[in-house]
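Researcher: Structure for this, please.
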Amino acid sequence: MSPKASIAEERKAPSFPIRDLTYWIDGDKKTTELKERIMLELERDPLWRVSDHPNLSLAETRERAMSKVRRLADLATSRPLNETLLRMSIISVVDPGFWTRFGVHFGLFFGALQGQATPAQLAYWMDKGAMSMQGITGCFGMTELGHGSNVAGLETTATLDESTDEF
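Model: Predicted structure, token format:
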């Protein structure tokens, strides 16, 4: 019997209840069912299709990414936190390219705002749409003057433009 046939035969009659193992891996039956519902939603939603990624232009890729961000922002504000976190973990596997873009905005840009802005500054950027990406798209710049990817040795400079009082 070939290995492929042997595995197929073995899968027909496992010595343990597969569904119970799935519940155990996911933590409980309720989480498994939620995970399956989210995966089915993503599978049925054309916005999350990844098969056409190689054929999209840069502008189309960006527009689709922004549509996904808006969808996630809407869901995050209307669904329970545990569902939002589970959805995000599934999306990171389904569409890692999008997840990277999403992570730059929320992890790096918005994370820097949360961690370093004063309450007034954070409120200003929140009012501009920094959280929901409605009106503002964040980015994160890292200056690596003469250091390549040596994060521990990074240097940067800021020059004050006295006429505008900005750096």
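Researcher: Any notable elements?
Model: The longest helix spans residues 58-78. The mean pLDDT is 86.
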